[in-house]
Design goal:
The radius of gyration is 16 Å and the shape is globular. It is built from 8 helices and 5 strands, in the order E-H-E-H-H-E-H-H-E-H-H-E-H. The protein has one domain: P-loop containing nucleotide triphosphate hydrolases (Rossmann fold, 3-Layer(aba) Sandwich), CATH 3.40.50.300. The model has no long low-confidence stretch (mean pLDDT 97). Helix 3 packs parallel to helix 5. It has a 5-stranded parallel sheet with strand order 2-3-1-4-5, with helices on both faces. With 208 residues, the chain is an alpha/beta fold. Bound molecules: thymidine-5'-phosphate (TMP). Thymidine-5'-phosphate binds next to helix 4. One of its GO terms (cellular component) is cytosol.
Length: 208
C-alpha cells in the first residue's frame, strides 16, 4: 500500500487536539505505521520558526509571515514528511498548506495566487491524499479561544479575521471535495469521531 499523507486542519477552536487523539487510536487499532507531526514545526528549524510566528511580541509583515510558514514547511517536507513516506510510513500532519491559504490568504489578505506560487515552488505537485477539515461556527471557535489562558499571535485576532479564515477553508473544501473530508465539529464527540473514522477508512479503501 502506498503510504498516505493526511492533514488535519481548521480554524482555531475547531477541536483539532481532541480529534488528533481519535486519529491516533484509529491508526493503532488498524496496526498501521504512522508518524504524527505538526506545522509550523516538526523540525528544529520549524519549531524555532513556530516560536517566532506564534509569539505575540513578533512584529512580522504578512509576506515575512507567509515565507516563514513555507520555510518551516520546506524543512519539514525534506527532513520528516518525504523520508517517512519513502520508508512506507503514513504521515499525519496537524495543519499544512491549507492553513497558509486560510490564515495568510484569507486572514491577512495575501493574494491566493502568491501562495499558490510558493506552494508550487516548495511542494512541486506534492500535497495531502486526504485533508480532514474540522469546521465549527465562528461563535464556537471564539468561545473556545476565549477559554485559552495565554493566547498566541493568531488567537489574539478578532472575529472578522477568523470569519475570513473559515471562508477560505470552506471554499477550498468545496472546490476539491475528493481531497477533503469536511467534518462538522459542532456535534457530540461521538458523532465527530464516527465521521473521522469513516473518512479514514474510506481513504484506505476499507469497507465502511
Ligand atoms: P495550532 O498549533 O493551534 O494549530 O497553532 C498554529 C497557528 O498557526 C494557528 O493559529 C494557525 C497558524 N498557522 C498559519 O497561520 N499558517 C500556516 O501555514 C500554519 C501551518 C499555521
Amino acid at each position: 500500500m502506498k503510504p498516505k499523507f493526511i492533514t488535519l486542519d481548521g480554524i482555531d477552536g475547531a477541536g483539532k487536539s481532541t480529534n488528533l487523539a481519535v486519529i491516533r487510536r484509529w491508526f493503532e487499532s488498524h496496526d498501521l505505521p504512522v508518524l504524527f507531526t505538526r506545522e509550523p514545526g516538526g523540525t528544529p528549524v520549524g519549531e524555532a520558526l513556530r516560536e517566532i510566528l506564534l509569539n505575540p511580541e513578533t512584529k512580522a509583515g504578512l509576506r515575512a509571515e507567509t515565507l516563514m510558514m513555507f520555510a518551516a514547511r520546506q524543512q519539514h517536507l525534506e527532513d520528516v514528511i518525504l523520508p517517512a513516506l519513502a520508508d512506507g510510513i503514513h504521515v499525519v500532519s496537524d495543519r499544512f498548506t491549507d492553513a497558509t491559504f486560510a490564515y495568510q490568504g484569507g486572514g491577512r489578505g495575501v493574494p491566493l495566487q502568491d501562495i499558490e506560487m510558493l506552494e508550487n515552488w516548495v511542494q512541486g505537485g506534492f500535497g495531502p491524499d486526504l485533508t480532514l477539515l474540522l469546521d465549527v461556527p465562528l461563535e464556537v471557535s471564539m468561545a473556545r479561544i476565549g477559554q485559552t489562558r495565554e493566547k498566541d499571535r493568531f488567537e489574539q485576532e478578532q472575529a472578522d479575521f477568523f470569519t475570513r479564515v473559515r471562508a477560505v477553508y470552506l471554499e477550498r473544501a468545496a472546490a476539491h471535495p475528493e481531497r477533503y473530508a469536511l467534518i462538522d465539529g459542532n456535534r457530540s464527540l461521538e458523532e465527530v469521531r464516527a465521521d473521522i473514522e469513516h473518512a479514514l477508512a474510506r481513504s484506505f479503501g476499507m469497507d465502511v
